[in-house]
Automatic annotation (TrEMBL):
Principal location: cytoplasm
GO cellular component: cytoplasm
Protein name: Dephospho-CoA kinase
Subcellular location, record wording: Cytoplasm
Natural source organism: Eoetvoesiella caeni
Residues bound to ATP: 11-16
Lineage: Bacteria, Pseudomonadati, Pseudomonadota, Betaproteobacteria, Burkholderiales
EC number: 2.7.1.24
């Protein structure tokens, strides 16, 4: 199956762009959503996280205390690495299981840390970056979550830079402060059409 790795910094608009591709017939696997499933009440990561970080990181209901974990890991890189060492292999396994079942004209993996992980280049046909200026990222995340600009800056400093992402991109969707949702849909549509064509050509070549 033709595979796309879709990435971008926090608040760049990855989920919005992935929603368009899904509406147009692609399969979408969102690793952020998988991380949330693993850390909700009864999620497979809860007990390993309780053992590694203590009961204070788990809510009375049995979900991950996201605010406490956010405060811990984006202030302390060693804590972030411990969290990632537990949860990333789990995310990887679920991602593989879902990819094996995927249908549609092509498959999109939404991966916030695609560039950082360095493990995706050989797993996808195209790397697509949703590109956004950092000030707009901060404004969008603030509007969505109410996090302070300082908290958002800490998260962004744990991520690749705009330049590092663009350096590995095969395709770029610009989604900066002047990009309307209509313009975003238009640029996404151009990529969708190109990927469908490439996927069909690949299929024809293997028939
Ligand atoms: C630290 C946690 C609990 C904070 O939860 P919160 O609800 O505030 O954020 P959420 O999970 O919705 O993530 C929002 C965005 O933060 C950024 N982010 C999340 N984890 C990381 C990370 N380890 N490094 C850098 N940025 C990250 C991404 O841009 C992501 O889209 C959560 O982000 C988490 O469990 N992170 C570890 C899993 C992970 O690495 N996820 C991202 C890639 S799959
Ligand atoms: N071009 C745009 N015009 C207006 N709002 C936008 C635009 N692009 C994205 N947004 C809004 O900005 C917010 C962030 O977008 P989105 O959730 O798609 O980003 P993301 O890259 O998936 O972020 P995260 O990494 O935090 O999950 C959302 O509320 C979304 O609706």
């Amino acid at each position: 199956m033709y595979k796309i790795g879709l990435t971008g910094g926090i608040g760049s608009g990855k989920s919005r762009v992935a929603d368009f591709f899904q509406e147009w017939g692609a399969s979408v696997i969102d690793t952020d959503a998988i991380a949330h499933e693993l850390t909700t009440v009864g999620g497979a990561a809860i007990e390993p996280l309780r053992a590694a970080f203590g009961a204070g990181m788990i809510t009375p209901e049995g979900a991950l205390n996201r605010q406490a974990m956010r405060d811990a890991v984006f202030r302390d890189p060693s804590a972030r690495l411990r969290l990632e060492a537990i949860i990333h292999p789990m995310i990887g396994r679920v991602t593989q299981e879902r990819a094996a079942l995927a249908t549609g004209c092509y498959l999109v993996f939404v991966v916030p840390l695609l560039v950082e992980s360095g493990r995706w280049r050989d797993k996808v046909d195209r790397i697509c970056v949703v590109d956004c200026d950092p000030a707009t990222q901060v404004a969008r995340v603030q509007a969505r979550s109410g996090l302070t600009p300082e908290a958002i800056a800490r998260i962004m400093s744990a991520q690749a830079s705009r330049e590092e992402r663009l350096a590995v991109a095969d395709d770029v969707v610009l989604n900066d402060k002047d990009t309307s949702l209509q313009a975003l849909a238009q640029s996404a549509r151009i990529l969708h059409d190109a990927w469908c064509t490439a996927a069909r050509q690949r299929q024809a070549g293997t028939d």
